[in-house]
Amino acid sequence: MKREIKFRAYRKSTQNICNVLSIDFEKEWVLLSDGDEEDISDLDLMQYTGLHDKNGREIYENDLLQCTSYTYGNGETGKTSLLVKYDEMSAGFIAGPYMLGKLMDIRKCEVIGNIFENPELLEGKQ
To answer: Start and end of every YopX protein domain (predicted)?
Structure first.
């Protein structure tokens, strides 16, 4: 299976997210879907993971997910919020201060926001 390489960007000046049309890493500029060209330092780039949530929504780096993680003996379902994160040494989900070593069933996860537009959903998750 081939993974599509694409990005979206959080524009710091206007505090909104735009799709990225192209990136010139040598000149350090990014062409956004609204036609603007921005210096790469004025943006936070978020790479597409190649995954979709349970609703078919694309999952990007720095998205916040809510996942059904387990069922208690009484039938009650547990949910956990996760941050999609990448660094040079690892990639995965963060729950609280810990990187999870366990894979989550993405079919039970839903994108509920991202760290830039919904920081209140991240409380205690970093």
So the answer is: 6-123
